[in-house]
Amino acid sequence: MDYTEEKYRPVLLKLSKDIDGMDYFQILNLPTSCNKADIKRQYYNLSRALHPDKFFHLGDEPLKQAVKKIYKRVTESYTVLRDDKKRPAYLKQISGSERMQHLRFSEQDEQSMTQQNRSQATVAQTPQGQKCYAAYLTEMGKKNLDAAWRHLQSAMIFETGNPKLLELKSELEALRKAAAEGEGSP
Q1: How high is the pLDDT of residue 63?
Q2: CB 50 within 8 A of CB 67
């Protein structure tokens, strides 16, 4: 589709006005359940169709500004949705009661995620302990309690007496016990 044609001018101008009320999934015209391949494909299609350089020869300055705004938001959408950490955080924000305030992923959101990552990293203090702790988190995310247990035990070898790891160990023992009891019941 060639958006430089005159018939698309009203569509682009309207989209430029409406885009501030759209979330990133709406901008890329994707469902919230989309995968990375869908996001990439849709971004590249829109990027090729709406790149501002395609419109440079037109004398219509309002249209050029509208296209720049749309292209910027398309790129912003792709940048956030392709990131495996930002996408779930963004989805959680736009699913909440304050949806309209979180349509755009802000610098504050980025700082909040960075702070969360730092606090997770400070559970383990040594490089080896941090690696084992990261592996523990990965396995917990997969609900693989036995593998998480092994990684937590390894982290505790490098960080004997770490109170945060001891607390996690207690929690994990309770989860493993509950899972074992759940398997035994009919």
Answers
A1: 93
A2: yes
Interior/surface letters 61-86, b for 16+ CB within 10 angstroms, e for the rest: eebbebbebbbebbeebbebbeeeeb
Q: What is the pLDDT of residue 96?
A: 79
pLDDT exceeds 80 at position 73 = yes
R_g of the chain computed on alpha carbons: 23
The amino acid that residue 25 corresponds to is F
Residues 6+ apart with CB under 8 A from 92: none
Topology adopted by domain 6-114 = Helix Hairpins (1.10.287)
Q: Taking each helix axis from N to C terminus, what angle separates 127-141 and 145-158, rounded to the nearest 10 degrees?
A: 170
Instruction: Give DSSP secondary structure letters for 3-19.
Output: TTSGGGHHHHHHHHHHG
**Residue given tokens 């969360």 in the structure block:** 116
From residue 142, alpha-carbon distances to 117, 132, 145 in Å are 18, 15, 8
pLDDT confidence of 29, banded at 50, 70, 90? very high
| Cα dist from 38 to 7, 69, 82, whole Å | 28, 23, 10
Over residues 104-148, the pLDDT tens digits come to 876 666 666 666 666 555 788 888 988 998 899 889 888 899 999
